[in-house]
Amino acid sequence: MTAANTFPSGPLWAVLLAAGSGTRIAAALAGAAAPRKQYLDLDGAPLFWKSARTLSRVQAVRGLVLVFPPEDVSGMAEQVTRLDAALPLGLPWRVCAGGARRQDSVRLGLAALPAGGPEACRAVLVHDAARPFVSAALVRRVVEALGPGSPAAIPGLAVTDTIKAVDHNNVVVETLDRATLRAVQTPQGFLLAPLSAAHARAQAEGWEVTDDAGLMERAGHPVAVVPGEEQNVKITTPADLALLQPQQTAAPRTGWGYDVHRYLAPGETSAKVLAQARPMMLGGIAIPGAPQVIAHSDGDVLLHALTDALLGIACAGDIGRLFPDTDANFANMPSAVFVTEALRRLRSAGYRPVHADLTVVAQVPKLGPHKQRMAAQIAQLLELPAGAVNVKATTEEGLGFTGEKRGIKAVAVVTAMPG
Ligand code: CTP
Ligand code: MG
């Protein structure tokens, strides 16, 4: 454990606020029976669980207090127990009831932290469950900005809109200097003792704030701002619900294939072997004068590697499963048929190839003169522009079975995009 991820002097806990009523978003949800926003489904779990998991991944965080509306506390205790059993947080956690205002929920959450002074809890992060997309990196940044002499650290973003102050009639009173403004987020980090004292004063003196940093400011403490994150939005209005929809997997996929064939050995006499000896086909073209290849199909090692790469993208197994060499139908079959079928499967899995990089490994024959034609042939098979397929050839410097001219191997890497 390094100093960077260990809170310097005593344990740090997080208070996760999920005790709001979500009134601004409720209108867009289906009636009174709709779950509160902190319970909306996000990747198969309630929204609040997303940031609970993120907080738990940060080593400095030693425990979690989850704050729920009073009427939900016992049900949520059961639900968190189930969620934690399915995929453990690896941290102690507690649930407690929140209050009418956000600042009440924080105060009650702080009261639920382990008792026992700084030995038990020295610092705290306060996070809105309504900000599920916070990253562990941001949590760490806040923690690392805390320490003696730095009792409060909050994430903030420079604002891009010009901000104006208005009066009750919506008439501009003042244009604020944008360069000095920050839109602040959570988690906000605090040394616990000054934060608890500030909350106690707020309670006694009737302060109203929208975040905990506001209390610290009023109590006269410096509050440091660290860079926030654009993605760390607060799910607040109906328009934000779109952010909770399952994301289309826009990620590309990479398929990898490998194949080997042995050559007909000089003086080979076995009738079975001789029956399977084929003039060499490579990348869909004939290679005159090359050693003969032993194979069930046409023995095109490069197209076989390519077929496996395509099947890899489709998660459709391998060439041996699709075209067993025990099946007489595939005897002497041109390997282009395998490529075409694998391509069909890749497409029906929702992908399209965009690039292929292939390497043939052989001591003999010399492949330099054929590389470009092989690439053109493969591009045609994959329906790709010629510039999207690359064929390389190499030897293994006389080593191994290719070096001893006993066989040939090939590898293929194909990249495909969704759609
Ligand atoms: N929160 C809380 N207790 C409250 C009010 C808010 O724990 N009494 C929490 C919310 O659950 C949310 C975070 O504070 O995670 C930020 O509040 P906000 O986005 O305003 O959520 P809600 O108060 O639930 O929504 P709304 O203001 O639209 O009713
Ligand atoms: Mg609110």
Q: Can I get a quick summary?
A:
This protein is of the alpha/beta class and 419 residues long. 30% of the residues lie in helices and 24% in strands.
How would you characterize this protein structure?
The structure is a single chain. With 419 residues, the protein is of the alpha/beta class. The protein folds into 2 domains: 3-244, Spore Coat Polysaccharide Biosynthesis Protein SpsA, Chain A (Alpha-Beta Complex); 253-418, 2-C-methyl-D-erythritol 2,4-cyclodiphosphate synthase (60s Ribosomal Protein L30, Chain: A), CATH 3.30.1330.50. Helix content is 30%, strand content 24%. It is built from 14 helices and 20 strands. Strands 1, 4, 5, 6, 7, 10, 11 and 12 form an 8-stranded mixed sheet that branches. Helix 7 packs across helix 8 (212-218) and helix 10 runs parallel beside helix 12. The radius of gyration is 32 Å and the shape is elongated. It binds cytidine-5'-triphosphate (CTP) and magnesium ion (MG). Magnesium ion binds at residues 20, 102.
Keyword list:
60s Ribosomal Protein L30, Chain: A, 419 residues, binds magnesium ion, 14 helices, Spore Coat Polysaccharide Biosynthesis Protein SpsA, Chain A, alpha/beta, eight-stranded mixed β-sheet, elongated
